[in-house]
Amino acid sequence: MPQNNQKSNVVSFSTNLESEKEKSGMDQIRIQGGYALNGDIEISGAKNAALKLACACLLTDEVLTLTNCPNTLRDMRSLYDLLKHIGVEITEDADTAKFHAASIKDKTAPYDLVRKMRASIMVLGPLLARHGKARVSLPGGCAIGTRPVNFHIDGLVAMGAKIELNEGYIEAEAEGGLAGGTYTFPRVSHTGTENLMMAATLANGKTVLKNAAKEPEVVDLADCLRAMGAKIEGDGTDTIIIEGVEKLHGATHSVLPDRIETGTFLIAVGLTGGELRLKKTNLKSLSALIAQLKDAGVDVTEDGEDVVVSRTGENRLKGVDIMTEAYPGFPTDMQAQFMTMLCLAEGAGMVTETIFENRFMHVPELCRMGANITVQGNSAIIRGVDGLKGAEVMATDLRASVALVLAGLAAEGETVVNRIYHLDRGYENLVKKLSNVGAKITRE
Ligand code: EPU
User: Fold this and answer.
1) For ligand 1, is residue 344 a contact (CB within 6 Å)?
2) CATH architecture of the domain with residue range 18-44+257-443
3) How far apart are CA 286 and CA 393, in angstroms?
4) Catalytic member of 55, 57, 142, 224
5) What's the 191 CA to ligand 1 centre distance in angstroms?
6) According to the model, what pLDDT value does residue 145 have?
């Protein structure tokens, strides 16, 4: 089982359940399976980059403009609510958003806004760096694990912040600003790295982050911060060095393409057969996934600014083994989708999850559709079956939800996916994008 290396006393939080009111407005997705996918799909800007890039606006009193920004995602809407509460003016036009944090009205990120989305913790570093004070609700656990934020806190303390935990809130203060410092992450943390990197841009002196995350979203954030005047080196490696500057200024930045959305459609074709051209994306950050997809029998190539994926129905997929790891390893955010594909492969495949302790919740639902999966600790053995059968299923988190949609595309008969508000958090126009390329899918 993955171990969380706890240092501060931020350990366990209650499960982040969404309110009954939100749940009652539940839509469903209905899918008639068995149709190959053929055509073009445009990939959106990456959720896990855009969320942090938008928080970077808190570091300057000038305007930050993001293009290729997935404004319609529910997670982006939740973040915009929080940023507006803090005092940021946001103007949007299609996939462009302008953020202006001229002044800060409220340095508190309240529980009601934070509980909707864990990435709200990303306002902590920037608020503290620019304003010397921040009060951010602890985000709580979620369906995929307890997900503590002790590294974010310990890292800010290493940079001179005074932090107390009171009544479920992180109360942070850095009178006279943050000082530079060195922090070694006990284990690689994607948002932890980004939060500290943003905070360090305005610190007095040099900050060194060791065992830092190397995800492409971290590099995209560093690119944007550099365009705002920050001095950062080493992003994309495990040591990031940030020389604090007095002030950051406005900039315009294009959000990088969503590698997880790209990977999800690659697997969709693996499951259904056909040929898709994925536009405005690339395979640069997907090598671990592509190697495994090719081994399983899916053809993937780059063509200019597009990616082309195909599989003919004649050859059956082959079972392969995967293990999730921090970047550049196999992404945990692709694990549920890949497992779904293995359900229909010839032979067996093994999936080992090393990032989150509870990320197999799609397994019982896939089994209800006829999959043969046995879970042992943090590994699952998937023995390929000849076909999946449509069923009514329920999703528990974002990537598990999309995995059930993929299963429905390949299953015989009708699949109804419930609780799809999870999908709205991270996939723009999923139903439209899929129905445009031949899927029989509707939202009700
Ligand atoms: N961890 C700690 N303490 C911390 C931070 C992390 O113990 O202070 C542990 C976590 O519990 C986990 C491991 O370290 O076991 C790695 O977690 P990490 O911090 O890297 O995850 P994250 O930053 O919270 C981001 C993405 C996730 C993605 C992971 C891994 C965002 C907003 N979220 O989460 O995305 O799975 O990195 O790549 O960027 C998703 O999009 O569906 C999603 C869950």
Assistant:
1) no
2) Alpha-beta prism (3.65)
3) 29
4) 142
5) 6
6) 83
At 211 the three-state DSSP class reads coil
Ligand 1 centroid to residue 212 C-alpha, Å: 13
Q: Which residue has the tokens 């932090």?
A: 163
Per CATH, 18-44+257-443 and 47-254 having the same topology is answered yes
Q: Which pLDDT score is estimated for 16?
A: 41
Nearest protein CA to atom 11 of ligand 1, as residue: 147
Tokens 């329920």 sit at which residue? 394
Q: Where are the domains of the chain?
A: 18-44+257-443, 47-254
The residue-averaged pLDDT of 121-140 equals: 95
The reply to whether 142 belongs to the active site is yes
Query: Which amino acid is residue 364, in one-letter code?
Result: P
Quick one: pLDDT band at residue 312, thresholds 50, 70, 90? confident
Tell me the pLDDT band of 147, cut-offs 50, 70 and 90. Answer: confident
List all residues 6 or more positions away from 121 whose beta carbon is below 8 Å from its beta carbon. 114, 136, 139, 149, 152, 191, 195
Across 358-382, average pLDDT: 97
Backbone angles phi, psi at 433, to 5 degrees: -60, -40
Question: Does residue 333's CB lie within 6 angstroms of at least one atom of ligand 1?
Answer: yes
Q: Looking at residue 429, what DSSP letter applies?
A: T
Per CATH, the number for 47-254 is: 3.65.10.10
Give the closest residue (by CA) to ligand 1 atom 40. 333
Mean pLDDT over each residue of the chain, to the nearest integer: 93
CA of 331 to the centre of ligand 1 (A): 11
Please name which of 35, 65, 41 lies closest in space to residue 53, comparing C-alpha atoms: 65
